[in-house]
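Per your request, structure below.
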């Protein structure tokens, strides 16, 4: 089976930028079918709202849908897979893992060492599996640390596209020898998983970020007004307008330069880990 274990629909919402993803649950399943995947997990942030629609679309299109949630624990993000009930945020990592296991589900530590510090970091040892490659972590170093630490601890490893748009889905795929969802979860928990993995291209990242900001424009302006004082507020408004109203090529070049700088910094850090 070929499985996408980390994907979002328009039910995911951000804090600073509310619009996070653009696919409906049906869109997600249709795209998984087009990519010839056998299964796809719906892992929206802090909600199970898209499960019903996704499961119905999965039956229609012959795709196994894995109900999941990317839960915000007290220590960072944790994914619960193969769930049948909603699990709330703001519990400890240990309690959240316990709630997932009570449902017979599988806990995965996504992007544990991402630069935004949204992962659970060394608490990944409490989860059933570790996401050692996240396609959005284009700084590279975050994934290297995750894989090295997972191997040191002997934890089962998975990969995830962290897809927020059609163009992102299927970038990182898990392969298991299984013929059902339950057997696939057992294989993952046992660490018998093969991968194909790749990073999201910069042009896709820039386009996604621009679309998010364009659709969240009033909310971002309100956030700037509430939280930033002059001159930071004026500069932020100017940069926001410049980004959402401009063409992509210049920002793609800027993104590639920033990425090059991040990788240079990451290579120095990697010498110490």
């Amino acid at each position: 089976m070929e499985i996408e274990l980390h994907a979002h629909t328009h039910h995911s919402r951000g804090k600073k930028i509310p619009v996070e993803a653009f696919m409906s649950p049906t869109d997600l399943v249709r795209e998984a079918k087009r990519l010839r995947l056998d299964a796809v997990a719906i892992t929206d942030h802090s909600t199970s709202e898209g499960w019903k629609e996704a499961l119905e679309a999965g039956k229609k299109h012959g795709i196994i849908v894995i109900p999941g949630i990317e839960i915000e624990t007290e220590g960072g993000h944790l994914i619960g897979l193969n769930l049948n009930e909603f699990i709330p945020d703001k519990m400890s990592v240990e309690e959240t893992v316990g709630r997932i296991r009570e449902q017979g589900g599988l806990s995965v530590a996504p992007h544990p060492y991402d630069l935004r510090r949204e992962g659970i970091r060394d608490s990944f040892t409490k989860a059933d599996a570790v996401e050692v490659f996240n396609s959005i972590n284009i700084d590279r170093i975050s994934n290297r640390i995750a894989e090295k630490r997972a191997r040191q601890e002997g934890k089962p490893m998975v990969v995830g596209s962290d897809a927020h748009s059609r163009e992102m889905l299927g970038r990182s795929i898990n392969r298991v020898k299984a013929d059902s969802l339950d057997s696939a979860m057992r294989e993952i928990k046992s660490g018998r998983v093969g991968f194909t993995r790749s990073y999201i291209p910069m042009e896709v990242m820039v386009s996604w970020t621009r679309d998010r900001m364009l659709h969240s424009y009033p909310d971002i302006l309100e956030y700037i007004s509430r939280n930033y004082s002059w001159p930071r507020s004026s500069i932020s408004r100017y940069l926001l307008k410049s980004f959402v109203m401009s063409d992509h090529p210049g920002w793609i070049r800027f993104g590639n330069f920033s990425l090059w700088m991040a990788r240079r910094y990451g290579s120095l850090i990697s010498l110490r880990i």
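Residues 1 and 233 are 50 Å apart (CA to CA).

Regards,
D.
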